[in-house]
Specification:
With 110 residues, this protein is mainly alpha-helical. The protein is built from 4 helices and no strands. It has one domain. Helix 3 runs antiparallel to helix 4. The termini are far apart.
Length: 110
């Protein structure tokens, strides 16, 4: 049950990354350079892999949350609805918290 939110989040990021890699010549995006789109897709695949691997969950969560925060700002700039992107950021952080809650707590010194 702890993996279910992470799998659902991954089902959003993986097709998004594959779309950026396979259909890199999209003209309606803010960046029309196909090299940047392919690089973004590869970045998303790597970040999703880091997110799914337990030892690197914090790094993967950070990368995915920063990417989606950047997407939120782009949507705000273009006047598009950005609420769903904010929910994806929150769901990504919540999914990693549900899998490993200890990494979000500070260590107390005695």
């Amino acid at each position: 049950m702890m993996w279910l939110p992470s799998v659902i989040i991954s089902l959003f990021f993986i097709p998004n990354a594959l779309d950026k890699i396979l259909n890199s010549n999209q003209m309606d995006k803010i960046v029309t350079n196909s090299t940047i789109m392919i690089s973004t897709g590869i970045f998303l695949l790597i970040a999703t892999g880091l997110f799914l691997y337990n030892k690197t969950i914090l790094l993967g969560t950070t990368l995915l949350a920063l990417y989606m925060t950047f997407i939120v700002f782009i949507h705000m700039y273009k006047g598009k609805p950005y609420e769903v992107a904010i929910l994806i950021v929150m769901a990504t952080i919540l999914a990693s918290y549900m899998r490993k809650p200890k990494i979000f707590h500070q260590r107390q010194e005695l």
